[in-house]
Each structure stands twice: as structure tokens, then as C-alpha cells.
């Protein structure tokens, strides 16, 4: 059984918590001591926990909150016993278990809850998601990464409730990261997303994280049924998206979707916006809210599973450009697929030494997507269309083949595909109206990889400019940019901020 001390305790040089533990062997007594200094008395906490070998998550067994009984004691360390003595009273026959007493005076609860006192509590977080893998795109990827990195926090336990079936392989993969997976109970005449309204009754939840309307509307019911707090994540700005969709009443539908997103944010205990762009967007929309709603910015960090992609310094004979997306009518203009195709039809790129690969078409829809792209002037021998890649190892192989990833979106909440390219050390160009670009502009040299235009000719010049550098130099520059991005935005710090805000809502 291991021991963890709050920040109020400072272990002296002779002590070492790494190898400090308690052991119970039958009825044999076991004693261990550790010299500490007490810096302040408002947050004296001792946590006893166990952690099996090779496990990342630890299981809290109990916590001792040491609270001075009077203001006189609080003001003087001399009134506090240097070593707490806990003794077991003689057990009476009618007692079920042992009774404990302590030499400390009976603790009195503080009149005002101090955030520093409640900050050591273990936070039980439940995330609602479609799947553990990324078969459905960026939302699933973000939820998985969020779960993994939150679980690394020493004071957080993470459960992911899925709306779809989950194989043993996925459960094992999640378990290695300290994440517990629970599949929602199958209910008659209910869709998988509706089943998420009813997580297991015995699941202890301190905070439930919903995502958009799709995975956020369930959280308002779960907050009531499980007596927990609700964190609403927003990753799109529907009002902006509607402006770039070509079907009838797209703007009106975008406005309606935006109202639903904002209405959920108004009800939630905490709003988490993915990236700086959406932080600004929703902070503005929520100003009219009756309560002053808290909006936390969460900018995703480097995808660790892609950092081991080994890029070859050898030049390709043909400059390979990669673009991700579904290619359907609804997203065609939003994602800027026409911009990319027309850029390749321009004088600068209209030759066989440049090639565009589009990845993300639905199975069997490759020909249909190719036909849409070809209408914008790119030649057939410069275009390849492939289906969505489900396997991360296959994604790594694809990224090794490429020279550049482009994200010419006219508007984008964040843009995880561009972040994935950067994570793999691959040069990337991103449209200016995206959360990723807003984040990149705050990173040293990051603005050089943002294209401040929706015009195809400007994109063709930007692509040509990247090629004019030697591949080895391009890759070295991206290594430096990736390091700078990681220093500015890393998962651990982002999660620390989120955990702190959740704890304020849950415990304080």
C-alpha cells in the first residue's frame, strides 16, 4: 500500500516517497516512518493507494484529512502533534468491526471550503463516446486522446461509456492506459445514442463529459440521475458551417443547430471549447446567458502515437500532397476541396510532378468523389482517391509516403487532420479560418504554415513554395515546429487546467 502526501507536506532530504509503502502480512505488526516538514495547515491530506505492477492508474484505498480543531491550533505548529498516533479500542462483542480513535482533537469542518483542501480528491470522470477507435473520424479520435491523457492524472479515474459494441482488444488497449470501458445497455426501440442516456446505475460519476448535441444532450439527464456535474465540449460552430453549405435552407439549419449547441452550453456546469477559435466563438454567444458561464479552452497536443513515424529524407520524384475528408456534397465547399483541385489546375502545379491524394471517401464512393473533384480542373493523372483509413498503422504508412498535408478548409472548428500531420513530422498547410491555425499562430514560426487566403492561386503558390525547399530541410523545420507546438500546447497541462476547473464544480 503506497502513500501520497498533499503539497502541505515536504519530505526531508532523508526521506523518499518513491519507495515508501505499508505492508500487511497476517497479524504481524508493520511500522514505517518518514520525516516531513509541514509548510501550512490548510491542506493536510494523506492518501493510501495501491497500484499493481505495469498499471498506470492507481486505486485509492482511503484518505486522511487532518484538520486543526481550533484557530489557536491552526496558528501554531507547536500545538500540532509531530506524529499522529492511531490506536484501536478494545472491540466489544456487539461490534461488527474495529473502532478507531486518534490523539487528534475531534476535527471541526471549516466554515468556508478552501479550493486547496478539496483539490486532492480523486475525480471520477465519465466520457460519452461512439467508439474507442477512430472509425467515425475526428470526434472519436479526440475523445480517445482526452480519455487517455485524463487517466494519466494522478487524481482522476476515467470511464468511457460507448454507444457501440466494443471488442476485447479495444478494452485491453484502453485498460493499458488506465481507462475503463463500459458499453451502454441495449434497450428495445432505442438507437445507440439514446442508450447513452442510461449508463449503469452503479457507475459512480463526479463529472460527465458530453460532446456537441450528438453526445451532449444525454449528459443533462445523467447529471440528474447520477448526481454529478456536466462538462459540455464544443468542437464546431454550426452557424459558420451553414454559410458554406450549398443545399436549401443550409443557413437556417446552421442557425438552428447553433441554438441547440448554445442551449446545452447554457445548461452545463462547465463548457470546454476545443481550440482558441471556438473559445472565442462560444464565449461571445454565451454572454447573454443568465449565469456567467465558464468556458475553458482546450487545445489538443501532439498525437503521441504518430510521433514514431520515420520520415525518409530522400526526395520523391513526384511531390506528393495529401488531403483528408469525406468528399460528400455537404462538406465539399466547407473543406475547400474545390480550392485544392483548382490550385492543381493552375499554371504552377498543372504538371505531372505534383500529385494530390484524397483519403476519406466512404467505401464504394471513390469514383463519385473523384468525379466531383475532377470537375474543378485537376487532371486525372494528378489525382488519387482512397477510402477512409481505419487502422492507425496504415495511416502511418500513408504519412511516410507524403511530402505535404493540406487543409484548405474555409472554416474549421479545429482541424485534427492537420495536427496529425504535424505529429508525424510532416509539413502541413492550413487555412487561416481554423482553430488549428489560430493555435499555430501563437507558436514560433507557426504562422509560416498558415495560408491566409481562399484563392486557389494563393494555395498553388504556397504548395510550390514548400516544394522548393529540400525534403530534409523541410522535415527538420517540422521537427522544430512540432517541438515548439508541444511546448506551447501539451496534453498534460491542458488536462491539468480542465481537472482543476472540474474539481471546483464538483468539490468546492
UniProtKB/TrEMBL annotation:
Region annotated Disordered, chain positions: 97-116
Gene3D superfamilies assigned: Glycogen Phosphorylase B
Keyword list, A-Z: Transferase
Molecular-function annotations in GO: glycosyltransferase activity
Domain of life according to the entry: Eukaryota
SUPFAM superfamilies listed in its UniProt record: UDP-Glycosyltransferase/glycogen phosphorylase
Protein name: D-inositol 3-phosphate glycosyltransferase
Designated gene of the protein: mshA
